[in-house]
Amino acid sequence: MLGMYPTFYVPYIGSAWVMGIIGVIHVVASHTSVGAAFLFAVLETKAYRDDQPEIMGFIKRYGVFLLVFSYIIGSITGPGIWYAITVASPRGVSGLIHNFVWVWAAEWVYFTVEVIGVYALVYLIGKVDRLTHLKLTWSFALASWATMLLIVGILSFMMWPGNEGWYLTGSTNDAFYNINFFAHLGVRTGSMFVMAAVVGFMVAAGIKDEDLKRGVIRVIAPIGLLGGLFSVMMFLYYLQTLPTNAKVMLQAYLIPAYANTMIGIFVATTAYLVFVWWKPHRLKLYIAVPMFLAIAVLGVWPEERMRESMRKPYVAGQYIYSNQVIARDVPGKSIRGEVDLIAEKGLLKLHPFIPDRLREVTDDNRLEVGELLAKIACANCHALEPGAPLRSIPDKLYGSPDKDMIAAFLRGPLKHGAAPYMPRIDLPDQEVDAIAAYLASVNAGTLEKSAASHTSAPITALIEREGK
Amino acid sequence: MDIGTVMNVMRDPAGIPAHPELFRILMIVTWVFHIAFVTLTLGAASLAIYAFWRRDTGPYWTRLSIAMTKVAKVGVSLLIVLGVAPLLFTQVIYDPQWYASNVLSAGWAIGFIFTLIIAYCLWFAFYFSNKEGAKRHIGIFAVIALLLFLLDGLIMHALSYQALLPGQWMDWYAPDGVVDTRGAYLHAIQWPRYFFIISLSVPAIGLYLLAYDDYLKSRPDLPEGYLGFVRPLGRKLGASGSLFALILFVWWQFDNPSDSNLIVQPGGWAVGAALLVLWFEVTFFADKLHGYLLLCGGLVVLLLLAIWREVVRATYLSAYGYSIVDQKINADWPSLALFFLTLAGVGGLVGGFYLSLLYRAGRVQGVYQADRSIAAMGTGAVAVLAVWIAVFFLYGIAIFIENTFAY
């Protein structure tokens, strides 16, 4: 038996997009928060050194905005990502937790300090002496960045450890300081300044005092520009630290799909930052808000989507496939790969959450078994509906209703792991036959027509019951 | 398949990086702080709404409503962040149960996030509007927010409770043998347990008001009579809330399966006894004991509850042959040191600096001038963070270089 979990399936967008949507919201909110913390520290240092207490008014204003934006949305979507990956990839998140629990626990210490700190920072402006408040602000900035330092190690391990070290030792050190880590950290550290500057512009746009507005913008705009430049340079370094499967995915699918958008958003953001730096008085809310939304959505979504896609077919450390199967041995943790065992015995025998009536494939339940197996083995990365946005399998098969052709793909490239960004899925013949029969039926359109009036149970189960 | 065997196979193959009892202790202790802020927030939110609609009946209700709105606002932030730690440690030692339960109600687990965001935004809307002379209808924001907070509590309760009932997982996942992958239902709710934990919000806010009174005694700028209004209210809520919670607790005790023998275990009755002691203290000594001491009495109740909650979980799961003590251990000392040093250095010094500063600044009228100890803590906070970051990079670069040449 394998330690697999029940499956959660979201039609059309898959659980992957649910995770992606929550993730993008969180990245925007959290990066803004960390970047803004440094902007506050720089601005407050200027206010202290040059005796410009009016700058503190801007910090308070931005801080209150941050409380709502980052510490409601950001702090809830943080655990939200956990919930989303828990239901989408329970074994994936479990693998990460069991490798990095102490790192996550250290990050939690920082989170707690950060949440107390943001309230202290905002509400103690003008209530404590200026030097003490400056110490508070700098410590808040450093603590905020520390949360990023800790989470990036885990995120970059999800891509891959980069060498055999961790597989042999099982040490968190080797997993955390992986080949991808410093490059990834650089990308996020640079981009947090861009995000904080862009959000800061929204706050600055509402300042009535033109001198204050100009003074603040002329501090945060160059920081945003330098952050952006640094982020781009580190992104180019980051690309050199990727595994082969990621590079193939990047060249074959992601660059054609996202390159123009990403270059466009880079040019637009740079032009925006330069323009506002040059003409601060021209910054208005009706410019700042749409620019923020454009950069947040068009900039962050492709970046997060690319990172998630490039990781395929793995979900963590190149040892857990996205479909929850352990892909290889990890001697340092006494972990055994499961692919060969599945090839020998099949998912129907080994998966604990298969109803007894479906453990044997029969003429009556073939389509139902095929649907369930497709959800278990494929649906973490693929939608099962034609025309669906999440790498629809029917679309990938060009809508072919030819069961033999589909089975040939399953018994060929997929069985041998020959597609570089696909897991090796090697199943016994009867399971291949069931999946092929199901996908052929989807493509033939016979399932949807028969079950159009039913929504609760699996479509195939309804058809087969009606058939009886 | 035998679900007990299944659960043991579902444990993460990587094992756990320290002794399971260490995780269990951390899970229990961190949950105490989480649930303290859950109950305080729900109590503060309820009182803020009640006071808001009683503004016309007395001079202090408006001030109290505004104050409690702020308490709930900060409370939600803290309950979220303090909830991360017990959730983390639960996933280490009870991973099969937690993940299975979440997947089986996945729609609700995701819904929890969005409803919490909506609720918190609504609470902020109430907070920004709740001023002198505020319009009555803004109270609707607060009511909807509170109802959503209660719903979120119910979702968390169900996810935790479903984790204790592995014998029913397959029936929920595949009723009549037909698999349902939508995660569309909450499958099990133990109402007495849910109501009991929610009811603790009444004594929680009562005890908070008693401590609030003692904290603000040094503030001459408060209207005369305000604290004299707050303290009796705190006493009333603390005493009646303790008794009310005790009744619900007894209901929960008798609602557990009779073959579990939980009813005869002393741990459960210790929670009941602590509630009774709390009622006695608040009823007869509220004016003699310092509010902070009474607040500590409340924390003792929560600590006993946290331990009892773990006893209940272990008892339910032992029936299936599941125990955390036989976990595979792959010890990882460097990352363990990272956590405990961060907890002591950053949590202690930086967190201590923030809390001390907030505490002292709140007790003075006008600008607080840091004394030597607070000033030193501030310098220490920046220094400890700078050192932590420097060590983080130096240590990381050394490992990075070593691995580059070794593999």
TrEMBL record, chain A:
<dbReference type="InterPro" id="IPR009056">
    <property type="entry name" value="Cyt_c-like_dom"/>
</dbReference>
<keyword id="KW-0349">Heme</keyword>
<feature type="transmembrane region" description="Helical">
    <location>
        <begin position="64"/>
        <end position="85"/>
    </location>
</feature>
<dbReference type="GO" id="GO:0046872">
    <property type="term" value="F:metal ion binding"/>
</dbReference>
<keyword id="KW-0479">Metal-binding</keyword>
<feature type="transmembrane region" description="Helical">
    <location>
        <begin position="258"/>
        <end position="278"/>
    </location>
</feature>
<feature type="domain" description="Cytochrome c">
    <location>
        <begin position="365"/>
        <end position="443"/>
    </location>
</feature>
<keyword id="KW-0472">Membrane</keyword>
<protein>
    <submittedName>
        <fullName>Cytochrome C</fullName>
    </submittedName>
</protein>
<feature type="transmembrane region" description="Helical">
    <location>
        <begin position="12"/>
        <end position="43"/>
    </location>
</feature>
<feature type="transmembrane region" description="Helical">
    <location>
        <begin position="181"/>
        <end position="207"/>
    </location>
</feature>
<dbReference type="GO" id="GO:0020037">
    <property type="term" value="F:heme binding"/>
</dbReference>
<feature type="transmembrane region" description="Helical">
    <location>
        <begin position="138"/>
        <end position="161"/>
    </location>
</feature>
<dbReference type="InterPro" id="IPR036909">
    <property type="entry name" value="Cyt_c-like_dom_sf"/>
</dbReference>
<keyword id="KW-0812">Transmembrane</keyword>
<feature type="transmembrane region" description="Helical">
    <location>
        <begin position="219"/>
        <end position="238"/>
    </location>
</feature>
<feature type="transmembrane region" description="Helical">
    <location>
        <begin position="105"/>
        <end position="126"/>
    </location>
</feature>
<keyword id="KW-0408">Iron</keyword>
<feature type="transmembrane region" description="Helical">
    <location>
        <begin position="285"/>
        <end position="302"/>
    </location>
</feature>
<keyword id="KW-1133">Transmembrane helix</keyword>
<dbReference type="GO" id="GO:0009055">
    <property type="term" value="F:electron transfer activity"/>
</dbReference>
TrEMBL record, chain B:
<feature type="transmembrane region" description="Helical">
    <location>
        <begin position="336"/>
        <end position="359"/>
    </location>
</feature>
<feature type="transmembrane region" description="Helical">
    <location>
        <begin position="292"/>
        <end position="308"/>
    </location>
</feature>
<keyword id="KW-1133">Transmembrane helix</keyword>
<feature type="transmembrane region" description="Helical">
    <location>
        <begin position="380"/>
        <end position="401"/>
    </location>
</feature>
<protein>
    <submittedName>
        <fullName>Uncharacterized protein</fullName>
    </submittedName>
</protein>
<feature type="transmembrane region" description="Helical">
    <location>
        <begin position="31"/>
        <end position="53"/>
    </location>
</feature>
<feature type="transmembrane region" description="Helical">
    <location>
        <begin position="266"/>
        <end position="285"/>
    </location>
</feature>
<feature type="transmembrane region" description="Helical">
    <location>
        <begin position="140"/>
        <end position="164"/>
    </location>
</feature>
<feature type="transmembrane region" description="Helical">
    <location>
        <begin position="106"/>
        <end position="128"/>
    </location>
</feature>
<feature type="transmembrane region" description="Helical">
    <location>
        <begin position="194"/>
        <end position="212"/>
    </location>
</feature>
<feature type="transmembrane region" description="Helical">
    <location>
        <begin position="233"/>
        <end position="254"/>
    </location>
</feature>
<keyword id="KW-0812">Transmembrane</keyword>
<feature type="transmembrane region" description="Helical">
    <location>
        <begin position="74"/>
        <end position="94"/>
    </location>
</feature>
<keyword id="KW-0472">Membrane</keyword>
